[in-house]
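Lab notebook, bench 4. The sequencing result for the construct came back, and we need a structural model before the next group meeting so we can plan mutations. Quick request posted to the team channel:

Model the 3D structure of this chain.
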Amino acid sequence: MLWKGKSPEETVFGEYLIRRAEPKDAKGVINCMQSVMDERVFLVSEYYLLTERGEQERIRSPDDLTVVAEKDSEIVGVLTIQRGMYRKNRHTANLGIAIKSGHRRKGLGKKLISSGVEWCRENYVKKLNLEVFSTNTNAIALYESMGFVVEGARKGQFVIDGKYVDDVFMTYWLEQPFNRDLGDLL
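Done. Here's the predicted structure in token form:
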């Protein structure tokens, strides 16, 4: 799946169409994200902060990737990758993912993340980061099965349903920079 160029490839995955988002998808992206936020147990924010126009601009950014999963013309999954914006962290990116209830545990998350990792390879991202609640054990197991490792955690960073929850930091190294001259990465 190549994500470069104006006309991204589409992939059929079971009953889902997976493709790069276009500005016209902004409302569907917002609705999907808000649906997951409304569950109040998977994402930090409770309200999607971008307007439709703001989301369209984010989708247009050449430094970001947004991939959507559609079923029956409804966006039911969203993966975002936002590249580091400074020269010192251009080799990194942050991953976010949201899949609507009823569409989880079908391999969709793995497929979306795989497409994001491929985009990172094509765009010289060396380190892909994410944050996940310690209570989201299914997501953590998926990330670990794909090669993400825990880098650390902020203990008791959030309160969900009256209980303290850790913020777990995970990383996928596309290329280990240790013991290397980093000149070629800059």
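The first helix runs from residue 26 to 38.
Will bring this to the meeting.
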